[in-house]
Amino acid sequence: METKYQIVDLQSQYQRLKSEIDPAIQQVLNDSNFINGRQVKQFANELASYLNCKHVTPCANGTDALQIAFMALDLQAGDEVIVPAFNYIAAAETAALLQLKPVFVDADPDSFNIDISKIEQAIGPKTKAIVPVHLFGQATDMELVMAIAEQYKLYVVEDNAQAIGAQIISGKYSGSMLGTIGDIGTTSFFPSKNLGCMGDGGAVYTNDLKLGEKMQMIANHGQKLKYQYELVGSNSRLDTLQAAILGVKLRHLPAFTQTRQAAAATYDQLLRGIERLEIPFRVPYSTHVFHQYTIKLSTLEVRNGLKKYLNDHGVQSMIYYPQSLHRQVGYLYLGYNTSEFPVANGLSERVLSLPMHSELTENQVAEICSLIQSGMKTL
Questions:
Q1: How far apart (Å, rounded) are the C-alpha atoms in residues 104 and 92?
Q2: Which fold has domain 253-378?
Q3: What is the pTM (predicted TM-score) of this model?
Q4: Whole-angstrom distance, CA of residue 277 vs CA of residue 299
Q5: CB crowding 66-90: b at 16 or more within 10 Å, else e
Q6: Where exactly are the structural domains of the chain?
Q7: What is the pLDDT of residues 19-76, one digit of tens each?
Q8: pLDDT-derived band at 100, boundaries 50, 70, 90
Q9: Into which CATH architecture does domain 10-105+113-247 fall?
Q10: How many C-beta neighbours within 10 Å does residue 261 have?
Q11: pLDDT at position 1
């Protein structure tokens, strides 16, 4: 059956913003300054203002952002970096590429974020950093993460690729935007992200101006002045066309977030109480910007059955993530037993993400939920 409801609808978003995006692109074409054009600096300043953050360096993608962060912190081969076992590969991959050792920690069964109660037992003499990933749109408990980091003198790199725009609403960091609490925040502007461009893009940000300047140099071949290489750097730039597009979309990000939150509220209302299905848990200390709306089913068979039923009826759904990182072939060298991290392993068998994007209407969510209700009766 033809897909009626996609997991993300970039075409409809573009059509809505076409009258703003097209002139922004045309201006870049007119200027013909495709690398480090004025729109790149303008977007960096606007993002810094939005995040209430002192320094933003745009870069080529979210994975590069993590690499730049690790390099800026002078992490050395053999140093250990704590990352969630239930997560996208980028943080572990970047650590491995820099000859650091990813150390996995199990997931919290409710929020799906890293289980903070298990971080301390993963800390050893070579541990240098913690990478809390704000999964699916809401915060890891940064107050607890920062307390652990302070106790053990560790760096904190927040992977905020899925939660840009989310904010801490209680406790020590109340009012802070996610990504601005640790030493460094990173994000991705992959097209499907809450703030996405029309290609690849990313950014690193910090409230430490010295660190921010260093990251800017690393992203630009380690140079502060042209042809003067003070650091070993990389070549990681956000191109001017993407910066112009992001500048437009950033102005709409609060409205995008409200639409996602409204859709999530409708999902909650219509899915709550269905047997063998759990709606997403909300942490009490942050807002949720719903990069994904991820339900949890009772078993692998029920999850896979519902996914097939939805697909057969024109509704796209996705499994984020189908296998814990310690079970991935490329990371077996780390020596973990595949039965370790039982929560992460269990989540990979039970989670299912439903359509969630800035163009989703209440009626569309209602139709999707009706199909879910029907589908669950068949399983």
A1: 9
A2: Aspartate Aminotransferase, domain 1 (3.90.1150)
A3: 0.97
A4: 10
A5: bbbbbbbbebeeebbbbbbbbbbbb
A6: 10-105+113-247, 253-378
A7: 999 999 999 999 999 999 999 999 999 999 999 999 999 999 999 999 999 999 999 9
A8: very high
A9: 3-Layer(aba) Sandwich (3.40)
A10: 15
A11: 76
